[in-house]
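ok posting inputs for the manganese (II) ion job
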Amino acid sequence: MNYDIIGDIHGHAEKLANLLGYCKNKNGDWHHSERQVIFLGDFIDRGQHQLETVKIARDMVEAGAALAILGNHELNAIAWHTPHPKRKGEFLRPHPPHQSGDKNRDQHQAFLNEVEHLHDTHKDIIEWFQTLPLWLDLPGIRVVHACWHQQYMDFLKPHLAPDGTIPQALLHDVTNEPDSVAEDAAMPSLFEAVETLCKGIEIALPTGHFFLDKDGVKRTNTRVRWWDKSALTYRQAAILPDEAERERLPDSPIPEQARLNFPIDKPLFFGHYWMTGSPSQLSENVACLDYSAGKGGDLVAYRWDGEATLDNSKFIF
Ligand SMILES: [Mn+2]
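and the output
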């Protein structure tokens, strides 16, 4: 099977419909005997067409024309909608009041605006999100929303359903940080493992160090280029919104646990990182397909035809 792999849509059904135009067969639909679409998650939040985006993707998945995985925004939506098992009237993700300026509500508001008064529709969409696996390891390629972390995946596997989805009984533990750290610190918590797959690796900068983000806000944590084995120091590994800030970072080694050493022995695709500029591969067999469709950028796909080495001419946008 060959795949058209599509990055984070964030409620921009109009960009999705446009991009899918390139993926149609001769009959004008998306059914191919030899191709499928793969959605990398983050269908919702931000854009003006939340329900339409989910409907297009879901219809394709249910018709067998596409596969899809879970993004951090779908996981948040599940936690927002799921009652807390112990605290009556509360949810796994707290519901701050409207106009409170709370970032968790603000980033989910575009979705809530479309579903809040459609209880059955909201419930139905959340149930569909719960059918999405955290990653797919397919013949020829791997896909995950933010970070392929083999050790954490091996740790998670016995806890997940056989299809890689998160069982209902596990939702509390994967969406809430544990109160105490496990005795065996070599093992992540369920929360940390799932967060890493859906949001990537973030590390604290050494004491006293910081960079300024695009809004001029001082940041003391940084996301790291986990896919790049040559990125060994903070200055090399940091993912920065403004490259001019790189020299400010220390050239000292990042912690061992932030350096992944599993072999990337087949093409690996992920989204999540709000890339900008012209879509291109990150290494010979690694590509991020999130080019900020949720913030005015292009929705990007990669047309994969079985190649072991990616080709920059196969990005579609
Ligand atoms: Mn994301």
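notes: The mean pLDDT is 94. Residues 8, 42, 71-73, 145, 272 surround manganese (II) ion (CB under 6 Å).
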